[in-house]
Every structure is written in structure tokens, then in C-alpha cells.
Amino acid sequence: MSVSLIILTLNEIDGLKTMMPRIKKEWVDEIVVVDGRSTDGTIEEAKKQGYKVVVQEITGRGEGFRTGLNNSNGNIIIYFSPDGNEIPEDIPNLLEKQKEGYDQVIASRFSIDSVSHDATFIRRLGNNMFTWIINKIFGSNVDDAVNGYRLITRECMEDLATRAKNFEIEIEMTIRAAKKGYKIAEIPTVEPKRTSGTAKLNTVIDGLKYVKLILRETIYW
Predict the structure, then answer these.
(1) Among 102, 118, 146, 172, who pairs with 185 as Cys (CB 3.0-4.6 Å)?
(2) Average pLDDT over every residue of 64-82
(3) Whether the model pTM is above 0.90
(4) CATH number for the 3-219 domain, one of 3.40.50.2300, 3.60.15.10, 3.30.70.260, 3.90.550.10?
């Protein structure tokens, strides 16, 4: 099985400089940087480091996930953001867990052995609420349905036929996988505080998008 690591960037030049050296080339077969039209030199820095860079034709995190899928070759896809919230050293752990036969493996920030140094009380409450709703409605059994740091097989990702444009892509992947009976697992992770760039997620606006997506997926079962 070949592995493609998709690096999702939007004005993360500092993150590329600090996080990418921690990724060992032997962990994966391919690294693709998918950029949402950065203006801070991220694209140039990624090319300077020798990475394949694909600039999104349509902006949005969800579009970035699909752009990564369509511009990579691996049987296994790992999505990673170099903003400091995600630990590169979890990449081998995601791969090891997938060997047990899972179609998706989520790096969970809210499992028993997990720690989040970045989640505010409101964000933690929202993530836990949405995860609980998704588990109840769609029959999944996860502690963090929302995190984008995850592994997914190409076969599964293609079959999910995602359409979400922004951050709701992450719960869409969880929901549709649960609806279709794919096997989902989690590994505990530590979420450090963001070390670079600025947060792109808006708690209220993106929360409303989550509600809309959950309602859509419930109605069109």
C-alpha cells in the first residue's frame, strides 16, 4: 500500500518552516502540498523545500481535501495541517492503526488519553456536542468526529463523494463513512497550541454549517 501525505496550507509559511522538517520522508511515499491561494510566501517556501505544490482552483478546506485526493497517487491518504496543532509524529501511529483493517483513522483530541492545549471551553463543548449528535444519529462511535487530521483509504474517500466546501468536510467524512458501514478508528493525540498563522475556523459560522450538513445527511439518508 502506498501512502500520500496531503499538506493543507493557507498562509502557513512559518508552519512549513517549523513543522515540515519533523516529517520523515520514509513515513510516506508521496508528499503533496495543497494550497488555498496563500499570499504570504507559503507556495514559494513549499517549492523551495522541494515539495509538489497544487494550488486550489476553488478555495475552501473541503475543496482542498478533494484537490489533494485528485492530485495524489497513494492507496492511503493522510491529511495534515502544519499550523502547530497537529503532531507529525502521529503519522506512523495512524498508519499502524490502519493495518488493523480500518478505512479511516482519526487523530482524536478528546479521547481518554488525549490532550488539547488549544481548545477553548466553547470549542471543546461544540466539538463534543457535534460528535455526540453524529454518534447518536449515524451510529458512529468516536470521540472526535470533527478533527481533520486523519487517515483515509482512497477507496473510501472516493466512495464518500464529499461535497462540503469548508471545514464541515471533516464531519461529512465521518458521517458518510458511518452511513456506508466503513470501519472508523481513532488514536489519541496531543493538540499543542497553534504556533503559526491564524485560525481559519469561525466557531459560529462553521457551527451553523455543521448543523446544516447534519440535517442534510439525516434527511437524505
Answers:
(1) 102
(2) 97
(3) yes
(4) 3.90.550.10
